[in-house]
Amino acid sequence: MRINYGMAAAFAALFLLGAPVSRGADAPPPAQQDKDDKQQKPVPEPKLWTTRNQIRIGGKAIDYQASTGTLLMKNEQDEPIALFGFTAYVRQGQDQRTRPIVFAYNGGPGSASAWLHMGILGPRRAVIEDLASNTRGPFKLVDNEYSFLDRADLVLIDPVGTGFSRPVGKAEGKQFWGVDNDIKSVSDFIVRYLGDYKRWGSPKFILGESYGGIRTGGVSYDLLTRHNVALNGIILVSPYLDFVTGTAGLNSDAGDANFFSTYAATAWYHKVLNPQPPELLPFLREVEQWIDTVYHPVLYKGARATPEERQAALDGLARYTGVSAAYWDAANLRMSENQFLQELMRAQGKTVGRIDSRFAAGMPNRIAETTAFDPYASAVAPAIVAAFNDYARSELGVVTEQKYVLSGGLYKDWDASHVQPDSNGWKVPYANVLPDISYAMTMNPKMKVLVQTGYFDLACPYGTVKSALDHLNITPELRRNVQLEFYEAGHMMYVHPASMGKFSEDIKTFLDQSSN
Questions:
Q1: Main-chain dihedrals φ then ψ at residue 307, nearest 5 degrees
Q2: pLDDT value of residue 7
Q3: What pLDDT was estimated at residue 26?
Q4: Does residue 16 surpass a pLDDT of 60?
Q5: In what helix (H) or strand (E) does residue 237 lie, and over which residues does it extend?
Q6: How many C-beta neighbours within 10 Å does residue 191 have?
Q7: Residue 56's CB: how many other CB atoms inside 10 A?
Q8: Facing residues of 68 across strands?
Q9: What gap in Å lies between CA 119 and CA 146, rounded to an integer?
Q10: Average pLDDT over residues 293-312
Q11: Every domain range in the chain assigned CATH 3.40.50.1820
Q12: CB-based contacts of 34-37 (< 8 A; 24+ apart in sequence)
């Protein structure tokens, strides 16, 4: 007999909802019982797996210890709230009081650190073929000649809800999933690690990618003001720093203008311009000047712009992107990156990558205005996931049935508001950590800042990064502490072979110059 389980379940639910519930006189009400069960729920023990390894960097043997596991974090009432996952690489035979240490993470929000871990930072990295679909095994690992373990130790962090990190005890995810809650929990982890592993005396650095820019801006200020931890430097990789000026399609003049130079770079790369400029950088300098003198002023004027000014803007929009003036006119001179990625090569049946706009793939829905998938992510993520899971279990010795969460989709439940240092405790609805960085640099004038950005990044375009740095409220003297480096690649510029060496050397030079 074939049972209709769906109908049976529906009837059972109706019965349970409609029938009176009988319980003993001494039994607690259901709400109290649930609360008691939650309180009595056992807290998993933190775990640590340790191995010893060696890598050659620059022809020299580097002996290191790899430690993968979790730290049990507690709140102010000494109650367990999270198992915080990490992987640490510590060079052996070094004085840990003088040895630099770098804490690193990806962004999302809701992304684990495996991208950086397997892409460029760890002593072993996944083999990624640039501009290809890395979806067919076998997936390979190789020694990472671009690692900076010859200069500094490394701790890769997975915020709660990513990797192997999760809330425990009575804690819930929402206690961690928001700009300020995330900043606090990551700061607390760093302080805990410094104490448990005797690294208080070390030169300290933080490296954050993408949303990790917002996290790092907040953490640098939070560490200094709440824990008296002063950083030697921060490294911002393709950083997202300000919601308004870092987002297109919101009818924000700065946001829409800041994306345009990467629209132009993308059009140049895919050779859809007529005439096609021979070189990228001279072309971008021309586009940037046009944005400042023509495009941004017209956006600011809105309906006050003259017909001649609007037409000049339309001519430039078409000339620098290859997208028709008619389309730009219908879009009222503004376009989100998703609309642009669909429209740029629609005639060829292709959609373009947001994370790295050098990538392109087929377009199943040729009339869609927004992208259903990212050609970059679909080409690279399978290799990253496979490489990390294989590496963690076969080389780092991790034994667990728990899934490593590469992307938890936490952005959907994320509290985007933020209490800025100068807001008198009021939560600004959308995060902007430029005040946090400005205050951290002012209060700690020896803190240096390295910013790395790619020309083909449409998640955090280089125009948004330059604009953010231009609006740091710091003195001319402190501006000398900020270093900006560009790469002819996308958001994760380290998949681009020509950028990998530069990425590594830029960080090593920065660490050397900022550690003393």
A1: -55, -35
A2: 29
A3: 41
A4: no
A5: strand 233-237
A6: 17
A7: 11
A8: 49, 87
A9: 10
A10: 98
A11: 48-244+381-514
A12: none
The span from the CA of 147 to the CA of 501, in Å, is 10
Question: What are the beta bridge partners of residue 352?
Answer: 360
Cβ proximity of 147 and 122 under 8 Å = yes
Cα–Cα dist 438/461, whole Å: 21
**3-state secondary structure at position 53:** strand
Q: Is the peptide bond before 239 cis (omega within 30 degrees of 0)?
A: no
**What kind of fold does domain 48-244+381-514 have according to CATH?**
Rossmann fold (3.40.50)
Buried b / exposed e over 139-164, threshold 16 CB at 10 Å, is bebeebebbbbebbbbbbbbbbbbbb
Establish how many alpha carbons lie within 13 A of residue 470's alpha carbon, considering only the half-sphere containing its beta carbon: 9
Smallest CA-to-CA distance from 166 within 291, 80, 79 is with: 80
> Residue 17, CB half-sphere, CA atoms under 13 Å: how many?
6
Split at pLDDT 50, 70, 90, the class of 247 is very high
Single out the residue of 399, 381, 353 nearest to residue 118, CA to CA. Answer: 381
pLDDT at 411 over 80: yes
Residue of 237, 227, 176, 185 whose CA lies nearest to 206? 237
**Residues in a beta bridge with 90:** 65
- Residue 365 has φ and ψ, to the nearest 5°, of -110, 100
What's the one-letter identity of residue 144? N
What's the one-letter identity of residue 250? L
Q: Are 105 and 156 in contact (CB under 8 A)?
A: yes
